[in-house]
Design brief:
By secondary structure, the protein is α+β, with helices and mostly antiparallel strands. The chain is 30% helix and 28% strand.
Length: 132
C-alpha cells in the first residue's frame, strides 16, 4: 500500500469464543459500503486470525484494526498479547482445523507478523478486484 491509509475502525475484544463473531462482523461492516472489497475473504480471514488469538495467544484480549482502502487494497491487523509466532499445523484431509495460515497464504499472500511491545500483530492485505 503506497499511499497512506488511516484507521477506519479499531476494537478490543476479550479472548472468548463469542468475540470471534463480533470481530468478524465489525470488519465486514467496516467495509460494507465498498463494493470492490471481497467481504467473504474478510469474513473468513478475520474469523481465522481472531480464533487463533482466542485459542493460542494465552492472553486476555486481542485488538482488531481495519485500515481505510488505499491503492485498491485494504489492510487488517489483529494484535494479541503473545510474542509466539503462528505455527503451521499438520492436518489430515478431513480435519476441520489447522488451515488458517494456508488460507492467509491463498487469500492474502504477503501477510506478516510483527512483534510489538505487548505481543504481536498479524497483518494482511486484500487486493481489490479492480472495479469501483
Amino acid at each position: 500500500m503506497g499511499e497512506r491509509s488511516y484507521v477506519l475502525v479499531t476494537e478490543r475484544y476479550p479472548c472468548q469464543a463469542d468475540a470471534v463473531g463480533r470481530a468478524r462482523d465489525l470488519a465486514v461492516q467496516a467495509y460494507a459500503a465498498i463494493p470492490w472489497v471481497d467481504h467473504e475473504s474478510i469474513r473468513l480471514l478475520v474469523s481465522e486470525t481472531a480464533t487463533n488469538a482466542v485459542l493460542h495467544s494465552g492472553g486476555r484480549e486481542f485488538d482488531l484494526i481495519c485500515h481505510s482502502p488505499c491503492d485498491g487494497a485494504i489492510q487488517i491487523e489483529l494484535h494479541d498479547r503473545s510474542a509466539k509466532e503462528p505455527e503451521r499445523r499438520t492436518h489430515a484431509v478431513l480435519d476441520s482445523h489447522g488451515r488458517g495460515l494456508e488460507l492467509l497464504d491463498l487469500l492474502a499472500p504477503g501477510w506478516s507478523v510483527e512483534t510489538t511491545l505487548t505481543g504481536k500483530g498479524l497483518i494482511f492485505t486484500l487486493e481489490g478486484d479492480g472495479t469501483a
